[in-house]
Design brief:
The protein has 174 residues and is of the alpha/beta class. The chain has 4 helices and 6 strands. Strand 1, helix 3 and strand 2 form a beta-alpha-beta unit. The mean pLDDT is 84.
Length: 174
């Protein structure tokens, strides 16, 4: 009985693996590479109000290009695509109050303006990222909280941009 059950489980798993392998699934990086190519250059417009955050955005953008697009960062002269990023001023909205009416959680929101340039196309994108974080009651937002909020909301905005580009690439393949 146990042997029969084990054999049925093995066949079920094998059938499931064969079924999934034939479904035509492609990772989003393949779709996005159709749009951006394999060589990308980046530029982040420095915010005069908040130059420290520009460095955070630049690092997050470069990391995403390598990890998600699976592309190489190159000089603009030899790039298939040039991406230019600008960041809006971060906004902080109270989202939770304690029983005494003090703010105990905020939502940080940033909007990235992205311009994608190739030899033939210049296209603008807008990507929004949010990050929720807690603070002590009746306290101010610390620099570390602010930097973390901007970093994580920028990562979400970059993920939103990647989703837009992947969707564009999937439509190209049809």
């Amino acid at each position: 009985m146990k042997r029969t059950l084990r054999l049925l489980n093995t066949f079920f798993i094998l059938f499931l693996l064969l079924e999934l392998s034939g479904c035509g699934y492609k990772p989003s990086s393949q779709y996005s590479r159709k749009v951006v190519g394999g060589k990308i250059s980046t530029n982040v417009v420095i915010s005069a109000q908040d130059p420290e955050n520009t460095v955070l955005i630049k690092d997050a953008v470069d990391r995403a290009i390598i990890e998600i697009f699976h592309a190489s960062l190159v000089d603009r002269k030899v790039a298939d695509t040039h991406l230019s990023f600008s960041i809006s001023k971060p906004s902080y909205t109270p989202i939770q109050y304690n029983a005494n009416g003090f703010v105990v959680a905020y939502r940080a929101t940033i909007i990235l303006g992205i311009v994608r340039e190739t030899k033939d196309v210049k296209k603008r994108y807008s990507a929004k990222g949010t990050y929720d974080f807690a603070i002590a009651p009746n306290a101010v937002i610390t620099d570390q909280d602010r930097f973390d909020a901007i970093k994580f909301s920028a990562q979400k905005a970059i993920a939103s941009f990647i989703a837009q580009v992947s969707a564009e690439g999937s439509r190209k393949g049809e």
